[in-house]
Design a protein that fits this description.
Pfam families: PIP49_C. This is PKDCC kinase. The chain is of the alpha+beta class. Helix 1 runs antiparallel to helix 2 and helix 3 (about 110-120) packs antiparallel against helix 4. The strands form four sheets. It has a five-stranded antiparallel β-sheet, covered by helices on one side. It has helices at about 1-15, 80-100, 110-120, 125-140, 185-195, and strands at about 20-25, 30-35, 35-40, 45, 60, 65-70, 155-165, 180-185, 200-210, 215-220, 225-235. The radius of gyration is 24 Å and the shape is elongated.
């Protein structure tokens, strides 16, 4: 969410009515999340000036660990230097820390491609935004899910109930540090996640949703009492339950 919001912001800056705008003091502390969108807190160090040049050798974009040769345009300006400066800063301050984590395994190669392409400046902002939107579409639609055996049949479902939260079954990544709370595309995906966790024996699908509209599921590892909850469905492994208990 943070990286996609940042890319949309940089896309706007690259195509602004004032021309391509560079953020000269590009640091994480210069940004804030407002209603799920990343915004710049200080535009004092923004610039629409692009480096003047006479030849390509005048257009080297330098960073502490990398340098990139750019083209000198017919207008005597270093082509795309503001856009590329913003994009590489997004790569080194945001993408490298956020993209490798938390995504479903099937989507990680696509995020790795974005990471590598922006780190080498092979992608411009247009290509980067398209790549992010493709990943988001796959994530929201569930198209990233590979065909696998149907596992939900191995669970008993009880609508209108949830289990009382038991002791710390924790997992990574989790929306709650107190337990294992993950976003899912469907109950079938939740069953596959539960089966992949050594101690998981049940999960609850709630009405709570993430910014992408995906429901949240809480995974449990210990038996707890069932309590009424009209907004939840609890799924219990058949091997972990008994008719007498239910």
């Amino acid at each position: 969410q943070i990286c996609l919001s940042l890319v949309k912001l940089l896309f706007y800056l690259a195509h602004s009515p004032l021309g391509s705008i560079a953020l000269l003091d590009f640091q994480p502390r210069q940004f804030v999340m407002v209603d799920g969108n990343l915004k710049v807190t200080d535009m004092d160090d923004a610039s629409t000036e692009e480096l003047s040049c006479k030849e390509d050798n005048d257009c080297t974009l330098d960073f502490p660990t990398k340098s990139f040769p750019l083209k000198c345009s017919m207008a005597g300006k270093c082509e795309g230097i503001n856009e590329k400066k913003n994009l590489f800063n997004a790569y080194r301050y945001f993408f490298t820390y956020l993209l490798p984590h938390s995504a479903p395994p099937a989507l990680r190669p696509l995020l790795s491609d974005i990471l590598n392409a922006t780190g080498d400046l092979r992608y411009g902002i247009n290509e980067t935004l398209r790549a992010f939107e493709k990943v988001l579409h796959l994530y929201k639609s569930g198209l990233y899910l590979q065909k696998r055996p149907l596992l939900l049949k191995d669970y008993i479902s009880l609508k209108g109930f949830r289990t009382v939260e038991g002791e710390g079954h924790k997992c990574w990544p989790s929306y709650s540090h107190l337990g294992c709370l993950l976003s899912i595309h469907s109950a079938e995906e939740a069953a596959a996640i539960c089966n992949s966790q050594l101690h998981c024996h049940s999960f609850i699908v709630t009405q709570h949703r993430t910014w992408t509209g995906r429901p949240l599921a809480s995974f449990q590892s210990s038996w707890t009492d069932l309590v009424p909850d009209t907004n939840a469905v609890v799924y219990i492994k058949r091997s972990a339950s008994s008719g007498e208990r239910l």
